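re: ur question from earlier - yeah i can do the single chain one, its not a big deal. heres the input i used so u can compare w yours
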Amino acid sequence: MDEIGPRLTEVLCNAWAAPYSTKSDFARAYADEIAEAACRGYLTVRASDGEWGRVWRITPLGVTLIFPDASLPAVEDMPLDLLLSNRALF
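and the output i got, formated as tokens:
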């Protein structure tokens, strides 16, 4: 499992508790950490309907970082649109 620092942890916890806009003050202040999290597959702006949005949301992989006892669902149980939009998960 990846080691994450306190700022990246804060980004993921905030996305879990209250997803934030891509243009919010929080997103601007933590732009580097958000970029890293998105590149690693921990955050996405992909909505559940498969459309691209403007809100950062935590991915299942991101959840496992802030809740280490959580587990990812089996690949065959995941919706196809989630698999296609989050290839970094696998």
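The mean pLDDT is 81. not sure if urs matches, ping me
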